[in-house]
């Protein structure tokens, strides 16, 4: 990584955040580029000014400040910086916290109760808490270690663990650090952890799950030939547009460098000069050490994998679903706890409504080392068990019809699941059922 790439990765993060915040929480991306968002107009869910940004950049600045002050990664100081951002608005142009994810807030609440000598890595390790907060702010740890790949990976994983410590969060922090360090989204190490390059743009998933954010940002980087095109492909997916933009901006900035960022965006970016100064300080910090990376280890990636074999479950007599959670913005996705007879599966099962209005399930996966050619499910269920679970969650959801059918009685937005509801009152009833904490059961014997 040269200095231009370091500046590009840091400022690119903020550019993606500032460009994407206008579209955050919106749904319904379109391939009609005439309607695409291309300028930093501000506004959006948080009513930021043109060039303003949200939590992604504030937390990156908080992380960078800690590195520069300490001269190295100190997790307690990183956590303290995150807390003063959240409570006091430090590291924010608005002098207040603008946007914060639930997992981050919960972790920072725990950080506030931390005593001297306590473990500073207080991010949730639960698989259902695998949000994208650990990768949206990551660039400073790579820039500060731009001559030491192993340390860049280690610090990148550990900064995530302060608020996001699941295996998946650590895995994708590892992978993103490698991509930024190399300035190359085509490195072999990521080949088993990305979507195929010929995946349709509209099929990319855009909400806050770390895997989906990494997939979308990497797809944008691999399917474009400039910083600008990468960022436009990323943020116009909508959904969690500011974070997808921030991750894509880190990658594209490391690929093309600061000089490739459109001048009109640089001129609009709030606190641009402060970010350039901070990035230069981080680069100087990383220039003090030269390390032989020829044998840059696979151990950091392998350390983030689940050291276990898939667990198989036999045919049950009864399948039950409970603890159902749903994110209903821009389509339905969520998770549920599965009980087979009296045995509760300890890993939540994911689900989403696909473009045809059908329900698909997503089993938790074992994170694989670099030598594994394919991922494997963490649990193995029989076909009838999967069918029973799918039928139960389908019954629980409101009536849905695919786009292209008669949807005059409800909204219909391409590729966005529950947005295809037939009647608004069905949607209301669905949320009433959700608040009632239902337990759904089905005999399969």
The biggest beta sheet reads: 6 strands, antiparallel
Helix content: 40-55%
- Cα shape: globular
pLDDT below 50 for ≥5 consecutive residues: which ranges?
303-307, 368-373, 404-422
Instruction: Kindly report the oligomeric state of this protein.
Output: single chain
State the CATH class of the largest domain: Mainly Alpha
> Given the helix and strand composition, which structural class is it?
alpha+beta
CATH domain fold name of the largest domain: ADP-ribosylglycohydrolase fold
Would you list the SSEs in sequence order as H and E? Answer: HHHHHHHHHHHHHEEEEEEEEEHHE
- Provide the CATH architecture of the largest domain: Orthogonal Bundle
Total beta strand runs: 10
Number of helices: 15
- Span from first to last CA? 60 Å
Radius of gyration: 22 Å
* The CATH fourth-level homologous superfamily of the largest domain: ADP-ribosylation/Crystallin J1
Strand content: 5-15%
Round the mean pLDDT to the nearest integer and report it: 85
The overall number of domains is 2
Short descriptors:
single chain, alpha+beta, 445 residues, globular, ADP-ribosylglycohydrolase fold
Give your account of this protein's structure:
- This protein is of the alpha+beta class and 445 residues long.
- The protein has 2 domains: 3-303, ADP-ribosylation/Crystallin J1 (ADP-ribosylglycohydrolase fold, Orthogonal Bundle), CATH 1.10.4080; 311-443, no CATH class.
- Helices cover 41% and strands 9% of the residues.
- The protein has helices at 3-20, 55-70, 75-88, 102-112, 139-143, 149-161, 167-182, 210-222, 227-235, 241-256, 263-268, 272-286, 299-303, 383-396, 424-435; strands spanning 311-312, 318-327, 333-340, 343-344, 349-353, 359-362, 365-366, 376-377, 379-380, 440-443.
- The strands form 3 sheets. Strands 2, 3, 4, 5, 6 and 10 form a 6-stranded antiparallel sheet that branches. It has a two-stranded parallel sheet with strand order 1-9.
- Strand 3 and strand 4 form a beta hairpin.
- 49% of the residues are buried.
């Amino acid at each position: 990584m040269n200095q231009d790439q370091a500046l590009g990765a840091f400022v690119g993060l903020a550019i993606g955040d500032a460009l994407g915040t206008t579209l955050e929480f919106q749904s319904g991306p379109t391939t009609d580029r005439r309607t695409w968002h291309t300028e930093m107009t501000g506004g959006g869910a948080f009513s930021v000014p043109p060039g303003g940004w949200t939590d992604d950049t504030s937390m990156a600045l908080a992380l960078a400040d800690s590195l520069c002050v300490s001269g190295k990664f100190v997790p307690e100081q990183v956590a303290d910086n995150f807390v003063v951002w959240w409570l006091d608005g430090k590291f924010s142009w608005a002098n207040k916290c603008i946007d914060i994810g639930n997992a981050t807030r919960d972790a920072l609440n725990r950080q506030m109760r931390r005593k001297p000598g306590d473990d500073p890595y207080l991010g949730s390790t639960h698989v259902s808490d695998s949000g994208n907060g650990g990768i949206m702010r990551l660039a400073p740890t790579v820039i500060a270690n731009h001559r030491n790949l192993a340390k860049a990976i280690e610090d990148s994983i550990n900064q995530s663990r302060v608020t996001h410590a699941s295996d998946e969060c650590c895995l994708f922090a590892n992978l993103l650090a490698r991509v930024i360090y190399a300035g190359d989204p085509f490195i072999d190490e990521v080949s088993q952890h990305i979507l195929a390059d010929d995946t349709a743009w509209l099929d990319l998933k855009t909400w806050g799950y770390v895997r989906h954010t990494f997939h979308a940002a990497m797809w944008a980087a691999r399917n474009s030939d400039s910083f600008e095109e990468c960022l436009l492909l990323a943020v116009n997916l909508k959904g969690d547009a500011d974070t997808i933009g921030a991750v894509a901006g880190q990658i594209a900035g490391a690929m093309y460098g600061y000089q490739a960022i459109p001048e009109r965006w640089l001129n609009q970016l709030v606190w641009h000069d402060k970010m350039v100064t901070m990035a230069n300080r981080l680069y100087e910090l990383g220039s003090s050490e030269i390390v032989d990376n020829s044998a840059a280890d696979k151990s950091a990636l392998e350390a983030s994998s689940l050291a276990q074999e898939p667990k198989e479950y036999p045919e049950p007599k009864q399948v039950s679903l409970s603890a159902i959670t749903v994110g209903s913005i821009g389509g339905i996705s969520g998770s549920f706890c599965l009980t087979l007879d009296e045995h509760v599966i300890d890993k939540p099962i994911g689900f989403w409504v696909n473009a045809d209005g059908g329900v698909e399930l997503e089993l938790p996966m074992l994170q694989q080392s670099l030598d594994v050619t394919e991922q494997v499910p963490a649990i193995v269920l029989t076909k009838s068990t999967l069918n029973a679970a799918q039928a139960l969650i389908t019954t629980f959801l409101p009536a849905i019809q695919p786009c292209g059918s008669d949807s005059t009685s409800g909204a219909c937005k391409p590729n966005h699941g529950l947005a295809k509801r037939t009647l608004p009152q069905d949607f209301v009833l669905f949320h009433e059922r959700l608040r009632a904490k239902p337990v759904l059961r089905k005999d399969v014997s």
